[in-house]
Amino acid sequence: MRIVYTALLFVHVLGVVVWVGGMFVLHFAVRPAAARLQEPAMRLTLLSSVIGRFMSWAALAVVAILATGLAMIFASGGFRNAHLSVHLMLAVGLLMMGLFLHIRFAPFKRMRAAVVGADWAVAAANLDSVRKLVLINLVLGTVTIAIATIGRAAL
Ligand code: HEM
Predict the structure, then answer these.
(1) pLDDT digits (tens, 9 = 90+) for 46-90
(2) pTM given for the model
(3) How many structural domains does the chain have?
(4) Mutation to probe ligand 1, out of 63, 65, 73, 79 (largest number of atoms < 8 A from CB)
(5) Structural domain for 43, as ranges
């Protein structure tokens, strides 16, 4: 049983690495590098393609994180036995997942449609919303990792 639990934990943490690490790279490496491209058509087409590909991997990571997280809770006696840090992780994690779905199906969807229609002003405005919301999720993700690790001893 211990091997099953640790395998679930491995997939859980792998999902976190892909999702939170991906948001870090988007915000601190891809975005500033793309900002140097003067031509809006080139910049926005590139970013729409990069973010779209990342979103697909992030969706897979979100499903894996939620499924393995819940499986670990049930494997160790259910919610009653779960440490406060796990309850907090679940709460903030669900908030992050809601925000992820919002980004994917509201501003990012609008941005992609605007890029296809060559409406660069609308695409840029929606990209700015994506940027702000991804930054919020990056901060929440970092807080969640602190809750999962430091929180286990401190709470
Ligand atoms: C939303 C649903 C989630 C559930 C139900 C959940 C549940 C769990 C559980 C049960 C553990 C094992 C705790 C232990 O063995 O002490 C765990 C570990 C962990 N979780 Fe989550 N989690 C969720 C989301 C997240 C998110 C969104 C992140 C980060 C962004 C995250 C980061 C971690 C990390 C880093 C660990 C490893 C902690 C360690 O072993 O020191 N989790 N999670």
Answers:
(1) 999 999 999 999 999 999 999 999 999 999 999 999 999 999 999
(2) 0.95
(3) 1
(4) 65
(5) 2-154
